[in-house]
Amino acid sequence: MQVPSKKKISYPVQAALRGYLRSFAREVNLPIEYNALRRFTECTSLLDKNGRDTLWQTVIYSAEEMRELHHGLRHTYGLLKASAESSFIEHLRVDRIDFCEFGNSQPFRIRIVNAYNDNQDYFYIKKADASRVYGLELEHLLSPNRILYFIAKDTLVEEHIVGIPGDQFINLHLQDPGFMEVRIAKEFVKFNERCFVRLLGDMRPCNYVVDVTPDFEEVQYRIRPLDFDQQCYEGRRSFYRPQFFKGNNPLVHFGMKHMDVQSMRQYQHEEHSLMALRMRFERNRLNWLIDAMVQDVLAPLEKVHLLRTELAEFYKDDHFLKMRTMGELLKHSLESIGRLH
To answer: Which of 38, 50, 147, 301 is least buried, going by the fewest C-beta atoms within 10 A?
Structure first.
């Protein structure tokens, strides 16, 4: 079973990455900082509808602290969703603040409720980490998905990614009426390739969601990452392939059941072609991001050496052995796909 080697080291956002983020309006002035949310006075375990511990804790603040926080959180949500238009946030209220101390980014999850119709939404405030920021931006540029997030100093604000948590989908929904095994198998192959080519690791079922979309005749599935902390961090090649995590075995088995080698290669080729197309469309922006990444330290040196050896063996390309940083390895991986398409 694939597991991280140890708790991930957090790396600060350096000047080159900040320059990129500022130029593309990802760095903004926020009305609240991460550390302000740490000043809670009480917490209680948050249970799911079946009474199981979710590993999140609902946190409570003093009355004065709560008033200040709620004002800042409403404006932060408005900035994320509607450029902080004041009329947009007047009818919003902060319904609950949850904290997870087990995540690398130690996130806070804020539930926002519309006072007119009780519609709810979520967003997250986390400690900024360079690996995660690179992962979010690469997801935005190279995947079919778009990501809303902002950074200010050491605070990271992210939108909520909608979908069924991967472990819940596998445990509860594989027997649903109309479930299409072949569709989820195809999507898992594509997801596996996206993660590997862009070196996004640790895609256990708890770290992605499945977005289910009814089509006019059947159902479409898209797998979306939730956790970007392991972007270009681990040294083992298999850690970047979701197929090698034990929890994903049911989806792997669907692929073995419904695909031959030729079909699987077709779907891999399709995803590589789409990634190459996105790289061409976003060439200038992507090059700027990768240039910043090449300068950054994102993993211990021994992990870089291990990964470059394994990638050189996989691709049969000794140029990987010359790379000195995770950014260089990612750059050469993307260039390999670009040259093929």
So the answer is: 50
Instruction: State whether residue 86 is helix, strand or coil.
Output: helix
DSSP state of 321: G
> Looking at the 3D structure of the chain, how many domains does it have?
2
CA dihedral 325, 331, 333, 336 (to 10 degrees): -140
Strand blocks (E) in 141-218 = 149-152, 155-159, 164-165, 208-214
Is the confidence at residue 187, as pLDDT, over 60?
Answer: yes
Same domain, 253 and 121: no
For residues 307-314, give the mean pLDDT: 96
Tokens of 281: 């469309």
The reply to whether 110 falls in a domain is: yes
If you average pLDDT over residues 257-284, what whole number do you get?
Answer: 94
In this structure, are 153 and 213 located in the same domain? Answer: no
CB 231 within 8 A of CB 199: yes
Mean pLDDT, the chain, rounded, equals 92
The answer to whether residues 121 and 227 belong to one domain is no
**C-alpha span between 230 and 239 (Å, rounded):** 9
pLDDT in tens, 38-66: 999 999 999 888 888 888 999 999 988 88
- Please report, rounded to a whole number, the percentage of residues in the chain having pLDDT higher than 70: 96
The structure tokens listed for 272 are: 């590589």
What is the C-alpha to C-alpha distance for residues 108 and 32, in angstroms, rounded to an integer?
12
> In whole angstroms, how far apart are CA 255 and each of 68, 144, 150, 164, 243?
51, 21, 37, 20, 10
Q: Which pLDDT band, with edges at 50, 70 and 90, does 176 fall under? A: confident
Question: Can you give the residue range of the structural domain that contains 298?
Answer: 164-340
Instruction: Give the pLDDT confidence score for residue 4 in this predicted structure.
Output: 60
Residues 149 and 199 placed together within one structural domain of the fold: no
| Contacts within 8 Å (CB) and 24+ apart, 104-112 | 104/7, 104/8, 104/10, 104/129, 104/132, 104/229, 105/129, 105/132, 105/156, 105/229, 108/34, 108/37, 108/59, 109/56, 110/73, 110/77, 112/73, 112/74, 112/77
Among 159, 177, 208, residue at a domain's last position: 159
Provide mean pLDDT across the span 78-100: 82
